[in-house]
Write the structure tokens for this entry.
Amino acid sequence: MKKSYFKRKHKRSLAEIIIAATLFVICAIVTRAGILPDMAWLPLILYLAPYLVIGWRVLWKAARNILRGQVFDENFLMTIATIGALIVGEYPEAVFVMLFYRVGELFEELAVGKSRASIAALMEIRPDCAHAEREGETVTVDPAEVAVGEIISIHPGERVPLDGTVLEGITTLDTAALTGESLPREAGEGDTVISGCVNLTGMIRVRVTKSYGESTVSKILELVENAGEHKSRSEQFITRFARWYTPIVVLAAVLLAVVPPLFMGVSDPAVWSEWIYRALSFLVISCPCALVISVPLSFFGGIGGASKRGILVKGSCYLEALAACDTVVFDKTGTLTEGRFSVTAVRPAEGVTESDLLYLAACAEQYSSHPIARALTAACPDHGEAHDVEEPAGHGVRATVVGRDGRPHRVAVGNTKLMDSEGAAWVSHSDTGTTVFVAADGRFMGSITVADTVKPDSAEAIAALRSYGVKRAVMLTGDSETTASAVARELGLDEYHAALLPADKVERVEALLADPARKGKLAFVGDGINDAPVLARADIGIAMGGMGSDAAIEAADVVLMDDRMAGLPRAIAIARRTLRIVKQNIIFALGVKAVILILGALGLAGLWAAVFADVGVAVIAILNAMRAMKTRD
Amino acid sequence: MKKVFEMEDLDCANCAAKMEDAIRKIEGVTYVSISFMAQRMTIEADDAKFDAIMKQAQKAVRKVEPDCRILLK
């Protein structure tokens, strides 16, 4: 598996290179030793042996391509350059150029093959089979053949083939391939499991909720495989550049070969051969290979490296945009915050303990499915029974609860109006969030505030974004002004806009996009659930928590697979590093080529230097490009 | 109709760009993108003439790189 990219073709090339190199060395020794009879054509005949061994493929391809009307192709250029060198009597150089060209080509193919293989390995999340329970028997089938609603069993060590809900069993799941998160996730009865994860510890029975084509694993694979489609501006620039570069350099070569001799000695063969030789080095340099290959390779590496970290980028153009991003707009709930309520402040009245207050509230609220009620119940899991529950609409809950003192109490949990109707003397505090008041038998017991808590790594992530050049961090939310301002202050955001409807969010983003002070790109980060229009409108739409939400995967340009904010600065870091490598390659390759072209025209650089400028530069650029795949923390 | 095809033996990045150019010029093709790294071609073209267009695309590909094939699924 490891060497699968080392194909027969490559072995053949390697053999030809070794044979030709050996023959070349023999030729060089023999001709230098002065043991040959003095015949002008003899060295040519000798050198033709390694030349043909190494070059026949190139010559053949060139001939075939000319017949098909492909002129400026690299085989053709190499053919003309080396035949030219043979004609002007530079036999060793002709062989060397061909040899070096083939070495470089082989190297290029291996490098590309290797990075393809390692990216394919990153995406080794395709499940092979599923064990479906059909008519009392377990049959092993292709995941694509399992229908929604069927029950499958997943053994430890197997990959989850389809998205589903656990019916039976407890296990831990390795989600590293999807999220880059090394800590395993626990799953028990009722939990959702995502295809592509590896089941680590226990056997589970799962009811399939999505067909294979719709499941997370298919969506991710599709996304990564199509990532090459959205090409970056750098890539487009390079292909356009290459289209003009080759013909121009070839034309320059022709002029260089013909024009100077017309002025310096039309009848002198030595002058002609000198200028033709100089022109040949132009032909060798004229291949745009180094550029054309290294730019997409860098982007491909960057995208691959990002996906290893649980960051899916839909195309190199988004990586480019991400690197230039200076405005980040966040959705609040579920993005900066956890998206679920939890108790943030407990204010018992005098003579009441915190735990008693929570106990009473949790008992009374246990049957309600309201998010606030859920937060209260979660804060005191060992609550007791409640009966005679009534829910006066818009006010809260009344229930009879056996308190910790063993006596039944009539408990009311709700807003101030409910307290008033209970005749309880309530006291309010200025806590951020939603406050509920608790009374027992008409006596005020205290208040509890629940709020959506900020994710632990949000503040850190925003600070990191600033160090990556983000100048403006904006929060949009449908939530109230007070909550929004508290969160914005806590996280150090530049602006916030509260009480927005989904349509207002689009409008706000459009206003930010239209702001003339903005120089870079605008990224919108949301949880992807109801953000689709904004995600689409921003320069870069980033969805968080892609695990299990295919709406997010579809609408966004970049998907952070886990729910953590830390992925965002990391994505920008990877994007910037990739772009830096791309720029290095473009400048390096163009620079070396330009220098060698000038030196070549002046007669200071021979074919040796030219072939380095072509193949050597390509190899160095490729090695540099492969760095993009390696990501650091 | 938009379809994705794998490409076999697509060996040079510059050739991929040339193929893209050539295929874009085929009548009925509205969009084409060849990814050298992923060895894939995404093409969008007239439904009615899709098969004929693919034949022409195959020809254009061979013209640039004779060993390269579009794998028609």
